[in-house]
Amino acid sequence: MSNPFTGPGRQSAGTPSLPTPPTGWPIGSYGTYEEAQRAVDHLAESDFPVQEVTIVGVDLMLVERVTGRLSWGRVLGGGAASGAWFGLFVGLILGMFTPQGSWLGPVLVGLGTGVVFGLVFAAVGYASTRGRRDFSSASQLVAGRYDVLAQPKHAEEGRNLLAKLAMRPPSAQ
Q: Which residues 6+ apart lie within 8 Å of 24 measured at CB?
């Protein structure tokens, strides 16, 4: 996995003390991250010094996709389920430390307590919204476009390689 805080012109050992903007000249611009990643893969296959390349997401936006409607039944069911998992986990841990292997009691107590607390916390959380948010959703940070940058001494070579990639027929890419 790469570190977005390292690269040419930036501290290479550890994370910098302050965020640093990307450096380099644009050599390609793509509509999706997958396309930008494919371009960098092409550069790597062409023996381009990819350690001097940066993919920059431009025009960032937070996208919230609604996944469903919330009701008291769904909220309480989800709270009970998550509480049950946590209670089961705590019960199993406590069961490991009980004498003579009598682990069933702590597991059942943990499970029951977890369900009760899960129900209570879910009910309090949902009631506190007072109907202002009766849906579930998933949020994602996406960019309007992804620019591939290279350091100036390699920018022209990078542009030429990416131009050759763009001229290939779609099936060859």
A: 8, 52, 53, 54, 149, 150, 151, 152, 155
**Cross-strand partners of 28:** 148
pLDDT, one tens digit per residue, over 10-45 is 555 556 678 889 999 999 999 999 999 999 999 999
Q: State which CATH number among 1.20.5, 3.30.70, 3.30.160, 3.40.50 fits the domain covering 1-63+142-173.
A: 3.30.70
Q: How far apart are CA 127 and CA 173, in angstroms?
A: 53
The domain limits of the chain are 1-63+142-173, 71-133
The dihedral of CA 100, 104, 106, 107: what is its sign?
positive
